[in-house]
Write a structure and sequence with these properties.
By secondary structure, the protein is an all-alpha fold. Helices cover 82% and strands 0% of the residues. The chain contains 4 helices and no strands. The protein has helices at 2-13, 18-29, 34-41, 45-70. Helix 2 crosses helix 4. The longest helix has 26 residues, at 45-70. It is elongated and about 40 Å long.
C-alpha cells in the first residue's frame, strides 16, 4: 500500500547523510526543481545533482533490501 511504501522510504532516508537526505526530500517529496534546491541550499546545481544521484542510488539499494525482507 502507499502507507507501507512511505514507511519504507522514510526508513531508507534515515540512513542518508544530511545533505543527501535534504536534497532527496526537497526533490521527491516536496517536488522542488534542481535550481530551487540549489538556491535553498546555497550550492551549485551540479552539487545538488551529485547529492541526488548518491541519495537515489543508496535509496534504491535500501528499498530493495527492505522490500525483499518483507517477502
Amino acid at each position: 500500500s502507499n502507507k507501507d511504501l512511505l514507511g519504507y522510504i522514510r526508513s531508507a532516508m534515515e540512513l542518508l547523510p544530511n545533505k543527501q537526505k535534504m536534497v532527496f526530500s526537497l526533490r521527491y517529496l516536496e517536488e522542488y526543481k534542481i535550481k530551487e534546491i540549489a538556491d535553498i541550499m546555497q550550492c551549485t546545481e551540479g552539487a545538488v545533482k551529485s547529492y541526488l544521484f548518491a541519495a537515489t542510488h543508496k535509496m534504491r539499494a535500501k528499498l530493495k533490501k527492505l522490500v525483499l525482507e518483507e517477502l
